[in-house]
Each structure stands twice: as structure tokens, then as C-alpha cells.
């Protein structure tokens, strides 16, 4: 199952709207087939592993991270393919929470006389498939918020200079993280100030994540790198119903996709933004700021993972903070996260945190209300 998990991770960032699943076929102690979800979500992991195994799949044990599907979609059910291949035993990480499956695949396999074992390395599988499961349970993708800052939590000097606070090893790690997410998201202020590309670079010929910019009025420069590459790399613009008409037409004309979202308190509602992205198929979003968008997501309790890159320099209070105003009066109101990893990256420190279950009273109350996004 550990191998199946590692294979499934190869599909992260590529499999949406489907889950990134890994599958291993074992016959008489020998691996005879391996597979993972193909780019775009099809073919699924199981038929690819079975095709590699060929006749050796008969009587085999199959390890798969997620319950095989049981419904007819664009392809036949994976449970049916496993039955037809004559496998003897299925070891599954977790059951599928998708209502179209939800135990039906396992029931189909058992009716065919196949031994079924579930719950193997389930905690690790649940973490790897958290985005897919969140879209089914809450109608929103998994959100990773990345903050690269000085020791004192600044992302730029008072004049706006930010390149580079962290070193090359940290920046390379950011590209690897982008590659494992379906989309990279920033606020309009960051798009205007930094003129970013938001692409994966230095990782070979990879499928690029969707680039998402949150901008209520679409007041973004049409001469930017994002605009110039909108036809070749997906660019989605989340905007309000009051976005400028001529600007909307201009962005349509250069190949961007517009996603209309609700407005709350004069700003885009972050919950509405994430729900719209989930409807469009995204399951894992990598947010790179800026401060206003970060504060909006944190305040609404919509950040699942914090990834910090801290550098050994101090900028001072006049610098730009990594997170904007949260309006907290008490420490008890602050969103809390639990540390899961620390690493030295070429002299910078990577620290990764997961949202504490239950969250803060403010964050929990805000989830259904929608705090403003920039």
C-alpha cells in the first residue's frame, strides 16, 4: 500500500477533477502491474495496472488507495474490470465518499467472491486524498497557503522589494509544491505588484496548474505576463458581478476563463470563490498570497495547510506583512495550526502546519458567513 500511495502522489496536480489514486498488482510475491490516475483523471489507476499485469492479474492481490468505482461514466467501472481480470483479493486504503460509489464498489467485489480488506494505511490515504474528499463533503477544494517571509514575517520592504527573500532551494521547493496542486492562486494586488507567471519551472515538461487570480473588478494589467500567456497556460479570473464590462470582454478575448463569485462586505466572498473552483473541478489549491487574500481565507477558516519559508533576515515593521488585517482582539480567536514538518532548505527553514480540528471560534463562525477576499 505504501507503494500505491507513492504512485498516487505522481498524479497530484494532474488528475482533477478525479482523485489521484495509486494501484499495485501482486502475484506470488512479485509486482506484476502498477498504475496511477492519468492526467485529466482518465484512465483510472486500476485498469492501467491491470493492463500492465495482463494474464498475471488472475489470482492476484491488488492494492489500491481508494475504493474502486462502481458507476458507469466515461469509462466502465473499475470494480467490474477487477472482477473480469479474475483477481483474488483487494486491499483498499479507504472507502470512497463520492455518493456514486460510497461502498458500492466494495459490495460488487464481495458479491463476485473477491476477498476485500479495507483501512490499510488509511490515515495517510485520507491525507493524500483530502482535496477530493473535501470537494465531496464541503463543496470546496483543499487550500494550502504558502508564505515566504523574513524572520519577522515580512514579504517585502517598505518600497515593495521582495526578490529574493528566500534562496534558490526554497524557491525550487515552491515549484515542486505548485506541481502537486491543481491550481496556483493569488490576489489582484499580488498580480499587479509582482507581475508573476505562476507556472512550474525547472521541473521538466510538466502539466501546468491552473493560474487563478482573485480580482473583484478585473482591474489587472492586460500587458502582464499572465495576460500574454493566457492562451497557452490556463488562467482563471474570479470576479464579482460588478466587474468592468469592457475589461471582461478583453480578458475573454485573450483566452482567460472568468468565474463569477459572490461579494460580501464589498469584497469577494472567499467561500464563494472556493465553491466556484470546486464546481469547475479543482480539488487542491496552492495560494501564494498576498496579505489581504491570506487574511481573508484565514479569517473564514478556509486554510487547511500552512507552508512557511522563513529566511534569516529582518526587514522591520515598515515592511509589508505576510498576512493582512484579521481584526482579532484575543489570542483565543486566532486560527490555530499544528506543526507536521520542519526542514532546512539551503539555509531557509520550511515549516508545514495543518489546521487544528475545531479551529478558533471566530474561524468556525466565519466558515458559513464568508469573510471578504481581495
UniProtKB/TrEMBL annotation:
Q: Name its co-factor(s).
A: Zn(2+)
Q: Which domain of life is it from?
A: Bacteria
Q: Which SUPFAM superfamilies match?
A: Cytidine deaminase-like, Dihydrofolate reductase-like
* InterPro entries from the UniProt entry: APOBEC/CMP_deaminase_Zn-bd (IPR016192), CMP_dCMP_dom (IPR002125), Cytidine_deaminase-like (IPR016193), DHFR-like_dom_sf (IPR024072), Eubact_RibD (IPR004794), RibD_C (IPR011549), RibDG_C (IPR002734), Riboflavin_Biosynth_HTPR (IPR050765)
Reaction catalysis annotation: 5-amino-6-(5-phospho-D-ribitylamino)uracil + NADP(+) = 5-amino-6-(5-phospho-D-ribosylamino)uracil + NADPH + H(+); 2,5-diamino-6-hydroxy-4-(5-phosphoribosylamino)-pyrimidine + H2O + H(+) = 5-amino-6-(5-phospho-D-ribosylamino)uracil + NH4(+)
Q: Name one Pfam family in it.
A: RibD_C
Entry keywords, A to Z: Hydrolase, Metal-binding, Multifunctional enzyme, NADP, Oxidoreductase, Riboflavin biosynthesis, Zinc
Work out whether the entry's keyword set contains Thylakoid: no
What Enzyme Commission number(s) appear in the record? Answer: 3.5.4.26, 1.1.1.193
Using the record's annotation, list all stretches that form the CMP/dCMP-type deaminase domain.
Answer: 1-117
Q: Tell me where the transmembrane regions lie.
A: none
List the Gene Ontology MF annotations in alphabetical order. 5-amino-6-(5-phosphoribosylamino)uracil reductase activity; diaminohydroxyphosphoribosylaminopyrimidine deaminase activity
The free-text note explaining how the cofactor binds reads: Binds 1 zinc ion.
The pathway noted for it is:
Cofactor biosynthesis; riboflavin biosynthesis; 5-amino-6-(D-ribitylamino)uracil from GTP: step 3/4; Cofactor biosynthesis; riboflavin biosynthesis; 5-amino-6-(D-ribitylamino)uracil from GTP: step 2/4
Q: Where is the signal peptide?
A: none
The protein's matches in NCBIfam families, at most eight in alphabetical order, are given as:
eubact_ribD (TIGR00326), ribD_Cterm (TIGR00227)
Function noted in UniProt: Converts 2,5-diamino-6-(ribosylamino)-4(3h)-pyrimidinone 5'-phosphate into 5-amino-6-(ribosylamino)-2,4(1h,3h)-pyrimidinedione 5'-phosphate.
Q: Enumerate the PANTHER family for this protein.
A: 2,5-DIAMINO-6-RIBOSYLAMINO-4(3H)-PYRIMIDINONE 5'-PHOSPHATE REDUCTASE (PTHR38011:SF7), DIHYDROFOLATE REDUCTASE FAMILY PROTEIN (AFU_ORTHOLOGUE AFUA_8G06820) (PTHR38011)
Q: Which family does it belong to?
A: In the N-terminal section; belongs to the cytidine and deoxycytidylate deaminase family.
What protein name is recorded for this chain? Riboflavin biosynthesis protein RibD
Instruction: Please report the organism this UniProt entry assigns to the protein.
Output: Lacimonas salitolerans
Amino acid at each position: 500500500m505504501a507503494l500505491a500511495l507513492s504512485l498516487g502522489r505522481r498524479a497530484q496536480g494532474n488528475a482533477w477533477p478525479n482523485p489521484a489514486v495509486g494501484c499495485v498488482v501482486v502475484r506470488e510475491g512479485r509486482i506484476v502491474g502498477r498504475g496511477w490516475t492519468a492526467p485529466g483523471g482518465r484512465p483510472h489507476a486500476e485498469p492501467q495496472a491491470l493492463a500492465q499485469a495482463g494474464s498475471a492479474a488472475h489470482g492476484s492481490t491488488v492494492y489500491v488507495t481508494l475504493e474502486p468505482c462502481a458507476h458507469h461514466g466515461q469509462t466502465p467501472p473499475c470494480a467490474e474490470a477487477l472482477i473480469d481480470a479474475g483477481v483474488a483479493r483487494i486491499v483498499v486504503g479507504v472507502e470512497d465518499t463520492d455518493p456514486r460509489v460510497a461502498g458500492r464498489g466494495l459490495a460488487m467485489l464481495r458479491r463476485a467472491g473477491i476477498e476485500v480488506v479495507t483501512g490499510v494505511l488509511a490515515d495517510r490515504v485520507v491525507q493524500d486524498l483530502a482535496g477530493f474528499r473535501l470537494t465531496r463533503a464541503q463543496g470546496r477544494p483543499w487550500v494550502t497557503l504558502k508564505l515566504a517571509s523574513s524572520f519577522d514575517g515580512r514579504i517585502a520592504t517598505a518600497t515593495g522589494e521582495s526578490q529574493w527573500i528566500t534562496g534558490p532551494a526554497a524557491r525550487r521547493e515552491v515549484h515542486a509544491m505548485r506541481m502537486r496542486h491543481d491550481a496556483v492562486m493569488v490576489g489582484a494586488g499580488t498580480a499587479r505588484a509582482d507581475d508573476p507567471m505562476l507556472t512550474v519551472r525547472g521541473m521538466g515538461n510538466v502539466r501546468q496548474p491552473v493560474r487563478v487570480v482573485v480580482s473583484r473588478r478585473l482591474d489587472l494589467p492586460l500587458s502582464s505576463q499572465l495576460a500574454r500567456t493566457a492562451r497557452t497556460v490556463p488562467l482563471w479570473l474570479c470576479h464579482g458581478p460588478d466587474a468592468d464590462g469592457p475589461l471582461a470582454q478583453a480578458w475573454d478575448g485573450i483566452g482567460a476563463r472568468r468565474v463569477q463569485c459572490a461579494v460580501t462586505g464589498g469584497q469577494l466572498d472567499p467561500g464563494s470563490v472556493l465553491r466556484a473552483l470546486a464546481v469547475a473541478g479543482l480539488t487542491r489549491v496552492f495560494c501564494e498570497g498576498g496579505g489581504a487574500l491570506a487574511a481573508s481565507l484565514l479569517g473564514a477558516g478556509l486554510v487547511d495547510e500552512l507552508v512557511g519559508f522563513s529566511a534569516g533576515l529582518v526587514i522591520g515593521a515598515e515592511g509589508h506583512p505576510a498576512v493582512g488585517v484579521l481584526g482579532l482582539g484575543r489570542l483565543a480567536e486566532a486560527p490555530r495550526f499544528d506543526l507536521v514538518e520542519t526542514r532546512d532548505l539551503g539555509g531557509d527553514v520550511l515549516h508545514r502546519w495543518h489546521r487544528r480540528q475545531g479551529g478558533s471560534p471566530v474561524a468556525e463562525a466565519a466558515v458559513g458567513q464568508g469573510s471578504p477576499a481581495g
